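Ticket #4471: structure output looks truncated?

Reporter: J.K.
Steps to reproduce: submitted the chain below (261 residues) through the standard prediction queue, then opened the result file.
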Amino acid sequence: MIKAKKSLGQNFLIDQNILEKISNATIIKDKIVLEIGPGTGNLTSYILKKNPKKMVLIEKDSELSNQLNNNFNNKINIINDDILKIDETILFNEKVTVFGNLPYNISTEIISKWIINLQNSFWFECLVLMFQKEVANRIIAEFNTSDYGRLSILCNWKLNIKKICDIKPNAFSPKPKVDSSLLIFYPKKKFIKINDPKNLEKVTRIFFNQRRKMLKKPYNQLFNGNQSILKKLKIDLNLRPQNLNFETYYKLASEYEKLRS
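Returned output as attached by the reporter:
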């Protein structure tokens, strides 16, 4: 019996109804599936029943990797490595469907890395990912709400996001102290072009650094009081960061790039 390692943020999903719901979230048959952090392979079993063309697992824990190899043998390909150190874009020659019960301590780092590294094309068809509920609420937050912020803006730039369900702690072993949420992400066909996503990160970081303050100070810091951009984007500097919608932030990042080029 393998015990969950707290240092790796391991909480193994054991609720069969939830496992079934996750595996039914999108079409798997004849698709290449990538599962992040499969743990003891509970979800892996459900996904394999749906007959994917190929199944690749990324598991950092070498003890779990060995157990998964023994349990599933030639049905899976397993990569024993840290997801944050892997370039997923070169692993596959066609788009993949991704499942992940992400370790809560690095979940925002994982999704941010994937979005920032997206080039002109997407390496995935969709992402079915589990987050701590509080983080999921920040990802799907709309502007003019208290949860809206940098993570919402980054995640909604190139992706359409929908919540599938909330999941209680007793669905896991060991039980986490918080509720979880399952989200599904699909690539957008149209989005505002930003050459370097790090510029979007910078713009949102400076604006949300003091989220309760008015926009004037961060705007001046980034744009030196440029009035033409204010008029073009119809921005009122008396508003606060959470009052600007997604599109305005993407346009601000684009204008910031133009000024720097």
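Triage note (M.O.): checked the attachment and the full token line is present. Strands lie at 12-13, 32-36, 54-58, 77-79, 96-101, 124-132, 159-167, 172-173, 180-187.
Status: closed, working as intended.
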